[in-house]
Amino acid sequence: ASSLWSITFGLACCAFEVLAAGASRFDIDRFGAGVFRAGPRQCDVMIVAGTICVKMNDCIKRLYAQMPEPKYVIAMGNCAISGGIFYYDTYSVTKGTDALGISVDVYIPGCPPKPEAMIAGVVKLINKIRGKK
Asked: What single DSSP character describes residue 133?
């Protein structure tokens, strides 16, 4: 809970907000969550940020399966939560991370959510891991 390493699966504009949360102005590293890894084998948390297209479904499932236990998922942005504005007009957009069969631990709504919301979501996940309400 005190050093979450995340694999950032940035698919659209929400990924820029994840990067901003890691920069010096917001400094998510003070919560122990500033280490972003490129590979799933070293990660505790998957941050799904952005629109999930149908072609990315297998990739997300594969990366999630490769993460060691215990593993957690943060769905960041309306597109990662429910498909967002693109779901109703496009045949190639998945209706959120839950539709892939991946259980989400923390939802961060917004289009795109601000870095402060990202930090609040990470703190919520830390409290969940520690067993606090």
From this structure: -
